[in-house]
Design goal:
alpha/beta; 8-stranded mixed beta sheet; 9 helices
Length: 282
């Protein structure tokens, strides 16, 4: 899709409602679906083509320029999404993590616990399959699946397409489960109100230091799988200290989505951060 990470899928993302396995939704959009499939800029030079000494610098300049174009366009679309969501009173949280950290399990439990608080919907992001969307649908929650193909993150255009298919009602609490990746999702604003990074205790205490960019843009870090602390080498206080060294304003909550430990603190955070006056992303 982009020069920022080199991912891509010329076929584009697939937007699917989980009960319609064989039907791919095609919607007309208020703005064109023009992802920057210009990988030749990032990959087409310097691979044995006999370029001179200046070719490397030219290639890097061209790649950086393309990155800026992709991100600038994404930011424009994200602002449109933000306005659309605000107009409907929909609160969207972008939930990001590496694969296997427990995002889907956390959302399943969250949906069931908060089901009486108003409408809830989920946008599921994965490269392939409807597996997670089917798990969410089993909770009774409205859900739409975005399959990114070779793409390793959701972007603002995919968010727009998913919102068109999902059509959330006014006042909906919307969770976006991003593609499992701690790198590229940090770069792409979707128009969400808040960003949540989920890490799990088996991943290691130094996760924030290894992947600083995603912690720099996050509002909350959830340390998941605290039930495994007796069996893994992980220090919650040190991990949180690492995260705050990157982003002093980040909040932190340690939970177990499996056992339910401390999930009330997570639910309280959601309720508190649904208030419009608390959030205005620059």
């Amino acid at each position: 899709m982009c020069a920022t990470c080199g991912c891509g899928d010329d076929a584009g993302p697939r937007i699917t409602m989980p009960h319609e396995h064989e039907h791919e939704h095609e919607h007309e959009h208020e703005h064109e679906h023009e992802h920057e499939h210009e990988h030749e800029h990032g990959h087409g030079h310097g691979h044995g083509h006999g370029h001179g000494g200046d070719a490397g610098g030219s290639e890097r300049t061209e790649t950086v320029t393309l990155e800026q174009r992709v991100l600038a366009k994404n930011d424009v679309l994200a602002e449109r999404n933000r306005g659309w969501l605000a107009g409907r009173g929909v609160t969207a949280f972008n939930v990001m993590s590496s694969p296997g950290a427990g995002k889907t399990t956390l959302l399943e439990r969250t949906i069931r616990e908060l089901s009486g608080s108003g409408p809830i919907a989920v946008i599921e992001g994965d490269q392939e399959t409807l597996l997670d969307a089917e798990r969410i649908r089993a909770t009774g929650c409205a859900v739409v699946q975005v399959n990114t193909g070779a793409g390793c993150h959701l972007d603002a255009q995919m968010m727009h397409d998913a919102l068109t298919a999902l059509d959330p009602e006014s006042g909906t609490l919307l969770f976006v489960e991003n593609v499992g990746n701690l790198v590229c999702p940090a770069l792409f604003d979707l128009g969400e109100r808040g960003r949540v990074v989920l890490i799990s205790t088996p991943e290691g205490t130094d996760k924030p230091l290894k992947y600083p960019h995603i912690f720099a843009v996050a509002d909350l870090v959830l340390v998941n799988k605290t039930d495994l602390l007796p069996y893994v080498d992980f220090d919650i206080e040190t991990c949180v200290r690492h995260a705050k060294s990157i982003n002093p304003r980040i909040e932190a909550i340690a939970v177990s989505a499996t056992t339910g430990e401390n999930l009330t603190a997570w639910f309280d955070w959601i309720v508190d951060h649904r208030r419009p006056e608390r959030h205005s992303r620059p």
